[in-house]
């Protein structure tokens, strides 16, 4: 914690930000600091109403203490990438809210270094999509487009269609999207579909073929191929693994912890 003290003098400003959850973790994924919005969200997530909003319930804990295991695994994989020096930029994902629903957020993570340039932890911020704060995001010009993707990810979507929605030529759209999100539009869409499929595998008992089609994949074989490439295990193995370590809970139980 001592190594983060100089930084904490600055990040404490985020305690005044109401519509963004901000945090700092050490290399082992333990929370070293979270802003007030995070603390309140966590307290309300557990109690269904605002209770204690101090940091003692979060500091020193990991995502495995705060979130379902299958989500904590994904958060930890993200952190491990960031600990290599990479930045996680503009990831669209579902995050639990105190009112008992899940909403779409935009999440960013960066590595933190000491005075010698050695990576000592990670920092992150997540904000709800479709809010005025989105105007602060580097990719804010694609706000309406992200909302469209999150509502229609299960449908065939071509870059030409997305470019029309963004009021750009296809070439300009592809160039600006990649500059803002560091992936192509189709790769972004594929990751979104895979994330939604992973949730369906854990939270529902739908047949794999249904999950594949409902999440926008051509068929079950295509789905299985892409899923294994991304998660390192087949959809069937993924469902079996997490069915053993997490309750089949309603989506509202998803924690806001990252």
Give the SSE layout:
Elements lengths: L4 H7 L8 E7 L4 E4 L1 H12 L15 H4 L2 H14 L5 E9 L5 E12 L5 E10 L14 H10 L6 H7 L4 H12 L3 H19 L4 H7 L5 H12 L3 H11 L13
Antiparallel strand pairs: 1-2, 1-5, 3-4, 4-5
Helix pairs in contact: 6-7, 9-10
Structure, described:
By secondary structure, this protein is an alpha+beta fold. The protein has two domains: 2-135, PAS domain (Beta-Lactamase, 2-Layer Sandwich), CATH 3.30.450; 138-247, Orthogonal Bundle (Arc Repressor Mutant, subunit A), CATH 1.10.10.60. It has helices spanning 5-11, 36-47, 63-66, 69-82, 143-152, 159-165, 170-181, 185-203, 208-214, 220-231, 235-245; strands spanning 20-26, 31-34, 88-96, 102-113, 119-128. The chain has a five-stranded antiparallel sheet. The relative contact order is 0.13. Mean pLDDT is 79; it is low at 47-53, 131-139 and 245-257.
Which class best fits the helix and strand makeup? alpha+beta
Q: Total helix count?
A: 11
| Helix fraction by DSSP (H/I, runs of at least 4) | 40-55%
Beta-strand content: 15-25%
CATH class of the largest domain: Alpha Beta
Give the ordered list of helices and strands. HEEHHHEEEHHHHHHH
């Amino acid at each position: 914690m001592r190594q983060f003290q100089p930084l904490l003098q600055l990040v404490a400003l985020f305690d005044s930000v109401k519509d963004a959850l901000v945090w700092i973790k050490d290399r082992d994924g333990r929370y070293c600091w979270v802003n007030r919005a995070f603390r309140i969200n966590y307290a309300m997530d557990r109690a269904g109403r605002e209770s204690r909003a101090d940091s003692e319930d979060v500091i020193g804990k990991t995502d495995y203490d705060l979130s379902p295991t299958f989500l904590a695994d994904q958060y930890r994989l993200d952190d491990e990438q960031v600990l290599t020096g990479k930045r996680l930029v503009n990831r669209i994902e579902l995050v639990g809210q105190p009112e008992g629903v899940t909403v779409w957020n935009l999440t960013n993570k960066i590595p933190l270094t000491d005075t010698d340039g050695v990576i000592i932890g990670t920092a992150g911020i997540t904000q709800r999509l479709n809010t005025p704060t989105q105007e602060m995001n580097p990719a804010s010009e694609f706000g309406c487009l992200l909302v469209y993707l999150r509502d229609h990810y299960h449908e065939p979507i071509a870059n030409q269609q997305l470019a029309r929605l963004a009021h750009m030529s296809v070439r300009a759209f592809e160039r600006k999207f990649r500059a803002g999100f560091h992936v192509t539009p189709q790769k972004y869409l594929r990751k979104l579909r895979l994330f939604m499929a992973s949730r369906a595998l854990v939270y529902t008992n739908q047949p794999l073929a249904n999950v594949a089609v409902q999440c926008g994949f051509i068929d079950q074989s295509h789905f299985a191929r892409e899923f294994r490439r991304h998660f390192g295990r087949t959809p069937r193995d993924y469902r079996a693994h997490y069915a053993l370590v997490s309750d089949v809970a309603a989506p509202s139980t998803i924690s806001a912890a990252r």
